[in-house]
Amino acid sequence: ENEVTALTLAMLHTGATLDFSDLPGVKISKHSTGGVGDKTSLIVAPIAAAAGAVVPKITGRGLGHTGGTLDKLEAIPGFRTTLSVEEFRSVLREHGLCFIGQTEQIAPADKKMYALRDATGSVESLPLIAASIMSKKLAEGFDGLVLDVKVGSGAFMKKHMDARKLAQLMVGIGRRMGKRVQAVLTDMDQPLGYAIGNALEVMEASQTLQNSGPADLTQLSIELASRMISLANPAEGMEAAREQANAALNSGAAFAKFQQVIAAQGGNPDVLSQFELLPNASSAREIFSPRAGFITRINAEDIGQAAAMLGAGRDTMEKHIDPAVGVILEHKGGERVGAGTRLCTLYVTDETHVEEAAQLVEDAFHISGAPAETRELVLEVVQ
Hints:
The protein has 13 helices and 13 strands. It is an alpha/beta fold and 383 residues long. The strands form four sheets. The protein has a four-stranded mixed sheet with strand order 1-4-5-13, with helices on both faces. A four-stranded antiparallel sheet has the order 6-9-11-7, with helices on both faces. Strands 10-8-12 form a three-stranded antiparallel sheet.
């Protein structure tokens, strides 16, 4: 544990670190290890900021079948994520929330280390993963951090035990640095919410901030936001934090906060209520159930890969993505469907890989005569 903390510190200090101690309020950040349909940062950060936390959010792009918050935000016309430190500080001071992309100045050793890990077959080394994540997060200048560690087919960590070990390593690093850190292990065996794809996920985040989002996405967003609020005000406890999170969501304060931040960063806040202003696909392909039964599983990785094939994701950071395309699920695991029921819709602008993506999506739905046991969304908390 001391070695991984020393490595994290060494990587952190190869670049710039941000200091927001002069700004009033407790600085609380959030990080997800990546999943399919995981647009929680677009919901959680505005809720926590509306409840009084200051949220400096340095976020990344998606790679492979998992989406990136930066890609989702850049689906909003005009939204700027390449802000100077002065602009970042100014938006934070005024609104208590700002989103920017990772810069070359933040933990530059991490990029070199990742290339070395790739070449040496050590990408899956838990201590190296922990050091990579925490060196970049610590550069944000936060007081507290909530980690969402995904577990399941659509996550990097497929096994609960490995996810727990990673969470414990990261929480330990934070604690030894004098930071308040919690990790929540959450299910990623099926996509989160119904929308997978950048503009589509902005739409669903907007719906959730207006109290009309999917139950699983709303539940997880409230859980993560409550923990952020609790870290900002540890004397008040989790119940008070949950009440504040729900109040920020139900009153419309969190939705208004997201609108304000979009405008402050050059975007058009009207996209949150007028979805036609977002990039829209040119055609759609529906997928139907081949038989009646219960959906026992929706393989999140297959759905994510299908969305990436359509152009919603990338294999390399240099590759261009299409913000308009993706997948909208019509049903979730545990639900009963009839033969011929529409399972989901693929939104497309380029027909090149549609057949392959459609087959992958159809195969992702496991339909059986008997219902499967439901999986809890929040599996464990490490603190």
